[in-house]
Amino acid sequence: MNKTVIEFNENLSYTGELPEGFEVLNPYLDNPETMEVMQKFYHKYYNDSCKRRFIIGINPSRHGAGVTGVPFTDTKRLESICGIKMKSAYTHEVSSVFMYDMIEDYGGADLFYKDIYINSPFPLAIVRKTKNGWVNANYYDDKLLFEAVKDFMIQSLKKHISLNLDTSEVFVLGKKNAEFISKLNKEAQLFDAMTVLEHPRYIQQYKTKEKQLYIDKYILALKK
Questions:
Q1: 157: closest CA among 39, 48, 25, 56?
Q2: What is the pLDDT of residues 190-207, one digit of tens each?
Q3: 164 to 17, 38, 105, 146, 207: CA distances (angstroms)
Q4: The model scores a pTM over 0.85
Q5: Which of 14, 95, 141, 175 could disulfide-link 200, Cβ–Cβ 3.0 to 4.6 Å?
Q6: How far apart are CA 47 and CA 1, in angstroms?
Q7: pLDDT of residue 62
Q8: Is the pLDDT of residue 48 over 80?
Q9: What confidence category does residue 49 fall into, taking pLDDT thresholds of 50, 70 and 90?
Q10: How does the average pLDDT of the chain come out, rounded?
Q11: d(Cα 126, Cα 66) in Å, to the nearest integer?
C-alpha cells in the first residue's frame, strides 16, 4: 500500500478553476523535505496490503499536513511519536495533539496505522486572502469553491478507496464536513454507511474538559 499512497501524493496537482480570493498550496512542491518525510512515514506504517478503515478529514492545514504531508501530524508528533525528524520546519497543530492522544489510547501508532488510513477529500491546503494576509480555508467555506473542487474531490476519494480501503463504513470528521461528504456520496456511491465524529480541532478548542469522552467515542467507533 505504501507505494500507491506515495505515488498518489507525488502526482498531486490541482489545475481546476478557483473562485477569486482562494489559492491551493501543494506542500510537496513548496518544500522538498515534505516529500521525504511523507515517504518515510508511509514506508514505516503502510508497507503491507492490509485492508484498512477510512477516516476522512476536511483539507490539510498549513501547519499540519500542509508541512509534513501526513494527515493530522505536525512536526512535533512526527518526530516524538513516529520517529521521523523534519529539519526544515517546526510546527504545532491543535488537531494533531488530539489525534495522537487518541492514537496512544488506541494502542499506539503501529497498531492504529495498521488498522486505519486517514486522508482528506481535498488533499491539498486551501488558503483564502483576507485584509491581514492569507489564512486557512475549508473546501466548504464558499459555495463557489465547493462547486469548483467537487469533481476533483470525488476523483481523489476514489483513488483513496482503490488503496484497499473498507467502504462498508467511513468515518467523517466534523458535522459540516459530513454534510458535504454525504452529497458526494449520494452522487458517486462511495460508501455504504457514514459515521460522523467531532473534528479534533473543535474538541481541542471547545471541549477540552470532555476530551477523554471524545477519545473513547473515537475508539469505540473505530474498533467496533
A1: 56
A2: 999 999 999 999 999 999
A3: 31, 19, 25, 27, 34
A4: yes
A5: 95
A6: 6
A7: 73
A8: yes
A9: very high
A10: 94
A11: 9
The grid cell for 54 is: 477510512
What tens digit of pLDDT does each residue of 90-117 get? 999 999 999 999 999 999 999 999 999 9
Return the axis-axis angle of helices 211-223 and 94-106, rounded to nearest 10°.
60
The grid cell for 61 is 492545514
Contact 25, 62 (CB under 8 A): yes
Residue 189 DSSP class: -
What three-state secondary structure class fits 81?
coil
Give, as one character, the DSSP assignment of residue 140: T
Kindly report the length of the chain. 224
Distances in Å between the Cα of 63 and the Cα atoms of 44, 55, 78, 120, 135 are 22, 20, 12, 15, 11
Alpha-carbon distances, residue 3 vs 31, 40, 67, 121 (angstroms): 20, 11, 20, 20
